[in-house]
Amino acid sequence: MKEKNEGLWIEKYLIILFASLFTLLLAVNLLKIYQFSQRQVMGVKGSGYQSQMPISQKGSLILQLEGDLLYPKIEILINGERIGYFGNTNLLLIEVEDKDVVALNSSMYEEPIYINIVNATDNIHLAIENKRIKAEKLTTIALIKIS
């Protein structure tokens, strides 16, 4: 009988320990989420009140090849990493984040290729403001600043 009670005591201790650790883990994660959300919120002062508006950390650009020719091998690079090609289209949507560097590699073509930035989401401020870019070899077309 005594051995049975000792086994129950250990089980109770383990259950209490597990519940305590789980509660602590939950509290730490909630604190991290709260701190992260506070960094992502910008105060906007209106007429006598202050509201909060979240800042999106992502945006998108729409690039278009000028003219009727297609250049399927043009590589699109973000921060030096190839994310895709133009392929068999002359219009391309690119998802970007703050401080991204968007570049094109057109070194496989001899002729100059012109690219237009057709549209950018409202939260993107391009550090390179040219809407029409002449792509030669490796060309940086946009430095992304999201605000």
Question: Tags for this entry?
Answer:
elongated, 1 helix, five-stranded antiparallel β-sheet, 147 residues, four-stranded antiparallel β-sheet, alpha+beta
Topology (SSEs and partners):
Elements: H1 2-39, E1 41-45, E2 50-54, E3 58-65, E4 75-78, E5 81-85, E6 91-97, E7 101-105, E8 113-120, E9 124-126, E10 132-135, E11 138-146
Antiparallel strand pairs: 1-2, 3-6, 3-8, 4-5, 4-7, 7-11, 8-10, 9-11
Give a written overview of the molecule.
The protein has about 150 residues and is of the alpha+beta class. It has two domains: about 1-55; about 55-145, no CATH class. About 25% of the residues lie in helices and about 45% in strands. The protein contains one helix and eleven strands; from the N terminus they run αβββββββββββ. A five-stranded antiparallel β-sheet has the order 5-4-7-11-9, with no helix packed on it. Strands 6-3-8-10 form a four-stranded antiparallel β-sheet, with no helix packed on it. A hairpin with a 4-residue loop joins strand 1 and strand 2 (about 50-55). It starts with a helix and ends with a strand.
- Summing up helix and strand content along with how strands pair, one would put the structural category as alpha+beta
Portion of residues within helices: 25-40%
Shape: elongated
State the strand order across the main sheet. 5-4-7-11-9
Order of helices and strands: HEEEEEEEEEEE
Low-confidence stretches: 42-51
Quantity of strands, as a count? 11
List the domain count as a whole number: 2
The major β-sheet equals: 5 strands, antiparallel
The overall pLDDT average reads: 79
Number of helices: 1
Strand fraction equals 35-45%
Rg from Cα: 27 Å
Measured between the Cα atoms of the first and last residue, the distance is 69 Å
